[in-house]
Recover the amino acids of this structure.
């Protein structure tokens, strides 16, 4: 029997604000436990929540980027449930009137594009963190995260398989990081997703019973968790069983999903408008301000790089696809460096160093200033591009200044024609056989001679000068 | 208002009801619901839902950290804590 899969994703993006959604406590990650907690976050009696202007700005910026409807008047509701990391006994969220409704995101499916419609994106507060393994018979709670603003982005059930889900997540990741809405750090839980998965017979119009896989926090796990769940549901249905609507957890160690302990009663969140919070109204002036500070997105960036700097399309696409790389590139060209050279090194040598260490450029030891120095030394002929790679590798390990490395290791390019001619003469004299072959028409050997000269000079010879002088010497 | 509804509501609110009080509360809740139910007869077709009875809008706060850590005070006022965390009975999903 043939089955088709229907997936909808709910993605929680932690907004990169300084403070919480309703209090002025810091949202910094990794601080000492329970030091970023305000009276409001604790839910103490007599305190009132006050909304964070920037959280709204970021949510609206996201809404504009996906061409959604922005509700300039939105409201907050209480979602009631008891859990120790939720001090108030309810989560403040936007149920009835979310800030963002509709819109869509284009994702890559192989060579093609597919449009995934967005149902809504609403603001809500995060819960604290429970730790269960610190004591044998106790759980402990860190409330630093409690109240951190989240944007929950809900897709329509239009995703057809695990690969598309990953592609959707990647598109979303790129978008929120470029918009400076979220830092996108999945390992710190800044971007995490719940997947609603169901299957049905091909041709059926009605959706099958879905399960929800909670809190998946890496691209790899999204794919694995969904694929496991699809297989599991097919097995259940094909053996005559029924899929139970439930919440499941993905265990990456065992590569399986399993049900969360079922509650005595079904979830009943008893949503109602939060009487502590008035409707939030965004004025037309505020909307204009948000639009006027809208950042340039990857597609436009790539086009601009090609037209403004004449760099290769493929290089432009790679650089513009990452916020960190494009910032790095823009600083380099902003300092009057050769854009083609900069793009070339960023995509080539630096790209492979980044891949090797799986880090972002701003986590490496290579600073923009140091990269500027390196680019200038190539442009002014002090060093060759080949030597630049050696220097980059050294900077990567030590973070030392490019000029220092050039001085210390004597890497200055040899431009001196007399010196180069001396080396060329030596190469020609010790390779008489090759010279003869070359003169008899084996043009390909030219590269061999260049290689020999480079070897003699430890790669420091100016390649253009070597070419010119070699030609002259061999054709004489 | 049947017995099961009362039990569900008290469970969701984490309230344990004594048997004799249960009857009284059931009656009270019924009275409240009947009283409020009169509103259901009103025609609200063209009336926008009211988010808040105060006809005002929410003030917004600048995104700057002004709150300071009061960790020791908070932890020492909780029923149980160690030097870093609030402690609660073991809850594992």
């Amino acid at each position: 029997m043939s089955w088709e899969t229907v997936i909808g994703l709910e993605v929680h993006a932690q907004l990169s604000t300084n403070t919480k959604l309703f209090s002025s406590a810091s949202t910094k990650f990794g601080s000492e436990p329970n030091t970023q907690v305000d009276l409001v976050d604790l839910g103490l009696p007599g305190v009132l929540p006050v909304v964070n202007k920037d959280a709204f700005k970021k949510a609206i910026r996201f809404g504009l980027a996906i061409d959604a409807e922005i509700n300039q008047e939105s409201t907050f509701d209480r979602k009631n449930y008891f859990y120790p990391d939720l001090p108030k006994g309810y989560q403040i969220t936007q149920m009835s009137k979310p800030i963002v409704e509709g819109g869509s995101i284009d994702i890559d499916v192989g060579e093609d594009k597919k449009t995934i419609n967005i149902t809504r994106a609403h603001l809500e507060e995060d819960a604290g963190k429970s730790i269960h393994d610190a004591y044998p018979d106790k759980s402990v709670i860190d409330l630093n995260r409690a109240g951190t603003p989240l944007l929950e982005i809900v897709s329509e059930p239009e995703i057809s398989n695990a690969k598309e889900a990953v592609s959707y997540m990647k598109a979303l990741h790129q978008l929120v990081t470029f918009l400076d809405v979220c830092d996108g750090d999945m390992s710190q839980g800044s971007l995490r997703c719940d997947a609603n998965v169901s299957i049905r017979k091909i041709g059926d119009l009605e959706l099958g019973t879905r399960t929800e896989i909670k809190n998946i926090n890496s691209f790899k796990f999204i794919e694995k968790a969904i694929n496991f769940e699809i297989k599991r549901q097919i097995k259940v249905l094909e053996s005559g069983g029924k899929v139970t609507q439930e919440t499941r957890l993905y265990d990456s160690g065992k590569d399986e999903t399993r049900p969360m302990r079922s509650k005595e009663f079904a979830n009943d969140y008893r949503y109602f408008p939060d009487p502590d919070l008035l409707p939030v109204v965004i004025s037309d002036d505020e909307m204009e301000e948000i639009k006027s500070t809208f950042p340039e997105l990857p597609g436009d960036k790539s086009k601009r790089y090609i037209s403004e700097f004449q760099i290769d399309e493929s290089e432009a696409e790679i650089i513009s696809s990452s916020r960190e790389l494009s910032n790095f590139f823009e600083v380099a060209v902003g300092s009057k460096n050769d854009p083609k050279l900069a793009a070339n090194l960023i995509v080539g040598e630096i790209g492979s160093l980044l891949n090797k260490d799986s880090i972002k450029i701003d986590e490496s030891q290579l600073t923009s200033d140091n990269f500027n120095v390196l680019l200038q030394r190539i442009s002014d002929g002090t060093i060759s591009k080949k030597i630049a790679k050696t220097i980059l590798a050294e900077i990567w390990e030590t973070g030392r200044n490019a000029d220092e490395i050039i001085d210390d290791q004597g890497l200055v390019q040899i431009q001196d024609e007399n010196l180069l001619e001396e080396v060329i003469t030596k190469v020609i004299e010790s390779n008489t056989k090759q010279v003869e072959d070359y003169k008899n028409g084996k043009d390909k050997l030219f590269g061999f001679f260049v290689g020999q000269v480079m070897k003699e000079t430890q790669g420091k010879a100016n390649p253009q000068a070597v070419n010119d002088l070699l030609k002259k010497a061999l054709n004489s | 208002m049947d017995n099961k509804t009362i039990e569900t509501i008290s469970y969701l609110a984490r309230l344990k009801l004594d048997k004799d009080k249960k009857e009284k509360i059931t009656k009270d809740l019924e009275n409240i619901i009947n009283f409020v139910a009169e509103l259901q007869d009103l025609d609200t077709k063209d009336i926008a839902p009211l988010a808040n009875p105060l006809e005002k809008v929410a003030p917004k706060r600048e995104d700057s950290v002004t709150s300071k850590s009061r960790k020791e005070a908070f932890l020492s006022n909780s029923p149980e804590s160690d030097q870093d965390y609030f402690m609660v009975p073991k809850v594992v999903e």
User: Anything to note?
Assistant: Chain B touches chain A at residues 8, 11-12, 14, 49, 51-52, 54, 56-67, 69-71, 74-75, 80, 82, 84-93 (CB under 8 Å). The longest strand of chain B covers residues 86-89.
